[in-house]
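Worked problem 6 (solution included).
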Amino acid sequence: MRVRLRYLIMLLAVLIVLSSMTAVAAMNTIPPTQVDIDMISFQISHLRPSACAGLSLSNLVTGSGVLTGTEGNDLILASSGADIIDGLGGSDCIVGGGGDDIITGGNDADICIGGDGNDTFIGCEGEVQ
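Solution. The predicted structure is:
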């Protein structure tokens, strides 16, 4: 009886050691990386098309449907659908995108870029279809 008990205890010890080794082998190790959070300076001028390179833009307006700019110099980026865009004051860069857009530049030197579709331009100094 004692011999059997010893064998059972030794067998149990061997099983514990083997299961520990298996657990260590199955462990996922993720190496350290150089990934970190970086802060990047972003300016509206990084988004403006080359046709608007001469404009000093200070506001970004995006959306779809009816878009209204500000009295400042805006970069207005419309959607791929039909939009109605009013740049208001300032020298604006207006990008209509796709769709049949109605683009109103406003009082100052506005560059209007229509994109795909049959666009209507009103009060734009420069027009690109």
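Discussion: The radius of gyration is 33 Å.
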